[in-house]
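We treat protein structure as text, and this decision shapes the records that our systems exchange. Because each token names a local backbone shape, the row as a whole describes the fold. An entry from our holdings is shown next, in its original layout:
>
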Amino acid sequence: MKTVLKYSFLIAFAATTFMACDNTEDLVLTEPESTFEINATNFANLVLNPSFPENPAVTISWNTAENAGATYEVVMATDAEFTNEVSLGSTDKTNFTISVSELNQMLLDAGLEPYKPSPVYVRISNGGETTSSLTYNITPYAVEAPVVTSPEADAVVVLDGENPDAQALSVAWTDFSREGTEVSVVYELQMVAAGSNFETPVSVGRVTNGGEYNLSNVQLNNLALSLGAEEAADFDLEMRIVGTITTDTGENVRTSEVVPFTVTTYESFTDLFLVGAATAPGWDNNNNNPAIVRLPDNKDAYRFTGKFNGDAFKLLEVRGQWQPQWGLNNGNFASSEALGFDPDVLSVSTTGYYTLDVNTKTGTYSITPYDAGGATTYGAMGLIGSGRTGDDTGWGGDDTDFTQSTFDPHLWYLNNITLFDGQVKIRANNAWDVSWGANTAVSGFATSNNGPNIPVSAGTYDIWFSDLTGGYIFIPRN
């Protein structure tokens, strides 16, 4: 037979969120008639709040059993038949309180899933006497932290400087199932130098409801260098995942175990590209912006000789992106990344040819007029050499032609060319009468006629060349 009870239950309001039933409503209890009874409540829907783990979740009271003096045991189950009964605790009093964190953990241990409301049945026993059960609809919260599954602890990641945009590291993790819930989890990947105890962690990136975050060679290399790594050296790092869930009941932050790993860095180079009204692309940051030459004996020093309009310009590190950008701040050459805001423009007052020198480390710069009046204007410019084919056949046949800038006839470019390990030279008019070569790879200043061959490594590049100075730079493409 079913028993109908009027009830009043005590609940800690700060610990849970609840939904109220009508105060006059009768709850139908599913257990046989009992010899002593729970004093119940008209609140039956509980959302446990992780912000107050030590506060009471539920306080239950009951009348004195006939078997007075015995111990009362408070039990719960996830089914009305109490197939798998779990003890919440025992007392010799006629009331019982359990904290939010204790109840939450017991519910999770009993198989309830985080952030999914489930029925929970509670009753009191005293020796041979048992009350009817009371049904709650309870929503527990997640306790277990995300688990990093990749990389493994103490993994070694050797970074590839020749493929800066290729994936170097995939950080993966697992967490509770969100299926059937209405919550979102923001996962933050944090990294620090090993041994720093995450006192000032670097936020590498965030993913909402994901389980993976990928880092390229250049991203991880720059991160390691910013944390104190030397170039072309091993450096120990530590990572962790912080999962944050924000709901109406508060914020739940869970942090994974720390995973140590090692990276082998490479020598870092920054490319710089012209942008602005003084330059050929104007203020379009993705308009075949010319690259300026990085000095082969000083990776922080750059030089460009060519035509400028009498106007303003800046320098970009990545074509198609405004950040980071370089310009002037209080008379120094500075980047937005270091300043925290955009620098002012550089400029020239009149249209003409200039040599621009900048140093990203010292912050020095200069813009000086260049006399191009007697310079030869060539009709064609080409690339020749074994680097075109991977063997000596690359030294024969027609040159691979550069395109002449319509803005500056002394500036040439060759976009999206695939090269092989080998050597090349640059020559004018598909002949050996005028040619340029040098012994420095990637960038430098070639000498005309009978100079050494330029060494190249396999890859796909954009190449910029100035016939005024012999300045050249090979920009790797993604």
About this structure: The radius of gyration is 36 Å. The longest strand covers residues 234-247. Residues 23 and 42 are 6 Å apart (CA to CA). The chain is about 5% helix and 45% strand.
